[in-house]
């Protein structure tokens, strides 16, 4: 696949994945096309040597693996992890309000959202709807309105001239998007609106939903020389897409796995999150539940946790540690934290550096300023739950957790090159 095609397909993937459910749907389609067999967690698994498999949980998390030509107990497993969720505004269970003749939906903040950029954007709505059919069968459907159906207007500067000096946002009162003008006596049904989005003639009743607002502006190449990419959800769907491409385009000779967890942005504590049992249960079904076999395999394995890193912003460089300032388009970033907010250690860092050296991929390092708090990833959680040697890396990014983030156009290609070599590598232990 050419470099230009990789970037274009990345942008397409981002645009078609407004929610974790849609992202997993996109990944599923690509895995099936590449010959991977879907496994049902409720059924017995019969795994074959050199087999290619995947399974999903909650429609929002996914694990794919190929068994390879070697015994994982001897060869270890090459693991790459990322997350499917991004900070967003999530629709509440009873959301409809009519105020001053405007139809609005109540929302709650999902994750560490940078709220200011959500104002004055063309918003749409997407997610999963659960419903009952005429026969009493419960089903789920993914919906996406696609077109702009809502907006959160700013307050005019004339009414509050302090906004440019200090703007405090109240998530309860300031964020409900406006969808329409209606009469106060009009009986609006949100459930009927959702029914119109579901293509099922047998639909009888909408029972529940998990819906998120998102910006309809399409992902794009930006810059005089198109050296940047700008999009919603670069954190962390960029990592999911590049991890997927490196995985399905590897030679599949080695035991290898990718895991894309939901709920990282809210702590990972769920059945489908990294702090849940999903990955360990899949590994036990693959390599067996013998404690000795499991520990032998994990001790020879390596997890590369891939999540975006903070690129140094030229207007705000003082917010970075002086000697650890990642530059966009300068290669993947190893993320290090003394308090284990990242799982990187000298051994796993050296292994990743060695992998990158073998394919001429430059490496950068990020350490947060000592007087600032540090974010985290699925890396420390996975390392804690499995005992697997782990390194946290990522692509340098501007405006992380904004409604629109920016990354370098070269970095996804460099990360792809490193990860594909990792999946093909015959040795992953020090």
From TrEMBL:
This is M18 family aminopeptidase. It is an enzyme of class 3 (hydrolase). Belongs to the peptidase M18 family. Gene3D superfamilies: Aminopeptidase i, Domain 2, Zn peptidases. Its EC number is 3.4.11.-. One of its GO terms (cellular component) is cytoplasm. InterPro entries: Peptidase_M18, Peptidase_M18_dom2. GO terms for biological process: proteolysis. CDD domains: M18_DAP. Its cofactor is Zn(2+). Pfam families: Peptidase_M18 (PF02127). One of its GO terms (molecular function) is metallopeptidase activity. Keywords: Aminopeptidase, Hydrolase, Metal-binding, Metalloprotease, Protease, Zinc.
């Amino acid at each position: 696949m050419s470099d230009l095609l990789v970037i274009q397909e990345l942008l397409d993937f981002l645009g078609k994945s407004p929610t974790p459910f849609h992202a997993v749907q996109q990944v599923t389609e690509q895995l099936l096309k590449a010959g991977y067999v879907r496994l049902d967690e409720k059924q017995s698994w019969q795994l074959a040597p050199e087999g290619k498999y995947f399974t999903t949980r909650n429609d929002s998390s996914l694990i794919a693996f190929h068994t390879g030509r070697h015994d994982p107990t001897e060869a270890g497993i090459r693991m790459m992890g990322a997350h499917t969720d991004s900070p967003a505004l999530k629709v509440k269970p009873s959301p409809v309000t009519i105020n001053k003749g405007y139809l609005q939906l109540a929302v709650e903040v999902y994750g560490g959202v940078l709220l200011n950029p959500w104002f004055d954007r063309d918003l749409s709505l997407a997610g999963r709807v659960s419903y009952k059919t005429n026969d009493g069968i419960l089903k789920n459907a993914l919906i996406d309105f696609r077109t702009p159906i809502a907006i959160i207007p700013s307050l005019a500067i004339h009414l509050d001239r302090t906004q440019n000096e200090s703007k405090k946002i109240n998530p309860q009162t300031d964020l409900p998007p406006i969808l329409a003008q209606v009469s106060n006596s009009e009986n609006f049904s949100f459930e009927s609106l959702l029914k119109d989005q579901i293509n099922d003639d047998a639909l009888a009743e909408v029972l529940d939903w998990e819906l998120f607002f998102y910006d309809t502006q399409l992902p794009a190449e930006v810059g005089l020389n198109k050296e940047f990419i700008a999009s919603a959800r670069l954190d962390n769907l960029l990592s999911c897409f590049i991890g997927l491409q490196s995985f399905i385009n590897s030679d599949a000779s080695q035991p290898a796995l990718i895991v894309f967890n939901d709920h990282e942005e809210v702590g990972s504590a769920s059945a489908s999150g990294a702090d849940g049992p999903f990955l360990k249960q899949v590994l036990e079904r693959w390599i067996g539940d013998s404690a000795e076999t499991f520990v032998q395999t994990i001790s020879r394995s390596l997890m590369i946790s891939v999540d975006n890193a903070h690129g140094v912003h030229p207007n705000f460089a003082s917010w970075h540690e002086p000697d650890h300032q990642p530059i966009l388009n300068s290669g993947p970033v190893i993320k290090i934290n003394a308090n284990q907010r990242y799982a990187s250690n000298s051994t796993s860092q050296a292994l990743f550096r060695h992998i990158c050296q073998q394919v001429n991929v430059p490496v950068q390092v990020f350490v947060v300023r000592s007087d600032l708090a540090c974010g985290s990833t699925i890396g420390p959680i996975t390392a804690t739950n499995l005992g697997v040697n782990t390194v946290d890396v990522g692509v340098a990014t501007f405006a992380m957790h904004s409604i629109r983030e920016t990354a370098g156009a070269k970095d996804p290609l460099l990360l792809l090159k490193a990860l594909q070599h990792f999946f093909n590598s015959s040795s992953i232990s020090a």
